[in-house]
Amino acid sequence: MLQDVGLAIATSGLSIASDDAARPPLRLAVTDAAALGRFCARVLGPLASERHADLRRTLEEYIRSHGSQSSVSRSLYLHRNTVRQRLRRIEELTRADLDDPEQRLLLQLALLGHAELERTRRDT
């Protein structure tokens, strides 16, 4: 599946941009929004919909905290059982194994792409 990401990135002309040299936020520059949208929909599945914004936020924080459920719990002010339940639901909806680093990378790229598409839609 990582080859698919490479193809999606190559065909959609993505590049990583940084606004702050001290701690650069990862953002994707979009040249082919349709290809990026297809990639995000394929990887995130139902998580791409606004209905699952809370699960996307949980997944973003889980990836940001290197898989620490207790960090997710603290940063999102959620009970640890709620975090566990959300992560199980994320795995069900995406059919991804969150313990697999390659699948986490795909999810992270899709989350970055989804966020950039949302910014682009808001700005137009």
Distance linking N and C termini: 32 Å
Overall mean pLDDT stands at 83
The class by helix and strand makeup works out as mainly alpha
CATH superfamily label:
PucR C-terminal helix-turn-helix domain
CATH class categorisation: Mainly Alpha
Show unreliable segments: 1-12, 20-24
Helices, by number, come to 6
Q: What CATH architecture do you see? A: Orthogonal Bundle
Strand ordering within the main sheet:
1-2
- What is the H/E string? HEEHHHHH
Strand content: under 5%
The 3D shape can be described as globular
Query: Percent of residues in helical segments?
Result: 55-70%
Q: Number of folding domains? A: 1
Give me the Rg, rounded.
14 Å
Strand tally is 2
Tell me about this structure:
The protein has 124 residues and is mostly helical. It has a single domain, classed as PucR C-terminal helix-turn-helix domain (Arc Repressor Mutant, subunit A, Orthogonal Bundle). It contains six helices and two strands, in the order αββααααα. It has helices at 2-12, 33-44, 53-64, 69-76, 80-94, 101-123; strands spanning 15-17, 27-29. A two-stranded antiparallel sheet has the order 1-2. It starts with a helix and ends with a helix. Residues 1-12 and 20-24 have low confidence and may be disordered.
List the helices and strands and how they pair.
Elements lengths: L1 H11 L2 E3 L9 E3 L3 H12 L8 H12 L4 H8 L3 H15 L6 H23 L1
Antiparallel strand pairs: 1-2
Helix pairs in contact: 1-2, 2-6, 3-5, 3-6, 4-5
